[in-house]
């Protein structure tokens, strides 16, 4: 393995380490004549040792760790097989191990860790800046001139394949393009589903017609049998309403058509609101344009009058 590659990011190293880890835990659980607290402490030793060595990148240290792990597997195998010396060695290692490695390894919750880091940064750097104020809704327009960055521009209302769109400025935002593409894709899926249901509905009606013919033939045959054998076959001529093949398809098609019609009505309502917004914006635009024209005329007249007065005095 090249020295510049981290071992924990390589597949072969990860497979070998995970296999060794699982083998050790399995053998710890299989040890006989050990109490539950001792088994738990033994498993914690394995977990903590692997957790301590997970960032080791030295080839020599990794070789020592794997050799120690395989030696521990051999010792546990002997103890599980009933070897008295192996069991004594396991108990001796468990007794000589530090107390901290016998405890449960700390489990870091990523969400809780992020919250702790955010709280620490807030205490260190002060409160975070408040988020920017939300942009006004499209239907809250027209906005006052003081809230605009420049002159007022009348929004452009256009039809995007049946979807009303109100564009405030160019270029068109990427979010608006994504919204339109998603809506058009959704509408096309509904139309495709409606066409497929129409085709399946034709086949279902053929099946219903065939069932009607078969039931009619079976009903006539049951009547003939009843005439020959008396009341033993009276139950065959009872007409019961059975579900038809087309029932589910008709219900599904009605639901799709209702969705298409509801979206169309929503688009019409949205279009009317947008037309109202454009009308108000245009009215304010014409008014502000007239005010600017009047202001320019007034300034021009003032400058012209001042020039004439200076000419007469000279």
TrEMBL record:
Residues 287-301 have a biased composition (Basic and acidic residues). It comes from the Eukaryota. Residues 115-137, 287-314 are annotated as: Disordered. Keywords: Signal. Residues 1-30 form the signal peptide. Residues 303-314 have a biased composition (Polar residues). This is Mitochondrial zinc maintenance protein 1, mitochondrial.
């Amino acid at each position: 393995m090249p020295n510049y590659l981290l071992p924990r990011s390589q597949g072969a190293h990860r497979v070998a380490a995970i296999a060794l880890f699982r083998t050790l835990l399995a053998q710890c659980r299989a040890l006989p004549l050990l109490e539950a607290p001792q088994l738990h402490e033994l498993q914690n030793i394995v977990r903590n040792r692997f957790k301590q060595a997970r960032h080791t990148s030295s080839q020599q240290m990794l070789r020592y760790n794997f050799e120690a792990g395989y030696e521990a597997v051999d010792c546990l195998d002997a103890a599980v097989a009933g070897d008295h010396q192996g069991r004594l060695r396991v108990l001796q290692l468990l007794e000589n191990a530090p107390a901290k490695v016998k405890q449960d390894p700390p489990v870091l919750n990523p969400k809780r860790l992020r919250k702790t880091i955010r709280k620490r940064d807030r205490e260190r750097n002060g409160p975070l800046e408040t988020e920017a104020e939300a942009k006004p809704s499209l239907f809250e327009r027209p906005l006052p001139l003081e809230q605009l960055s420049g002159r007022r521009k009348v929004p452009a209302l256009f039809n995007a394949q049946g979807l009303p769109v109100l564009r405030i400025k160019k270029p068109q935002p990427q979010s608006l393009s994504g919204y339109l593409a998603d809506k058009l894709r959704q509408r096309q899926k509904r139309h495709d589903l409606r066409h497929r249901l129409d085709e399946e509905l034709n086949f279902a009606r053929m099946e219903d017609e065939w069932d009607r013919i078969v039931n009619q033939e079976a009903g006539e045959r049951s009547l003939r049998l009843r005439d020959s054998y008396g009341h033993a076959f009276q139950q065959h001529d009872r007409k019961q309403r059975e579900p038809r093949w087309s029932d589910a398809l008709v219900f599904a098609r009605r639901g799709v058509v209702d969705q298409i019609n509801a979206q169309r009505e929503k688009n019409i309502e949205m279009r009317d609101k947008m037309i109202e917004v454009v009308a108000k914006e245009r009215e304010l635009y014409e008014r502000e344009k007239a005010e600017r024209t009047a202001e320019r005329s007034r300034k021009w007249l003032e400058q012209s009058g001042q020039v004439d007065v200076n000419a007469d005095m000279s």
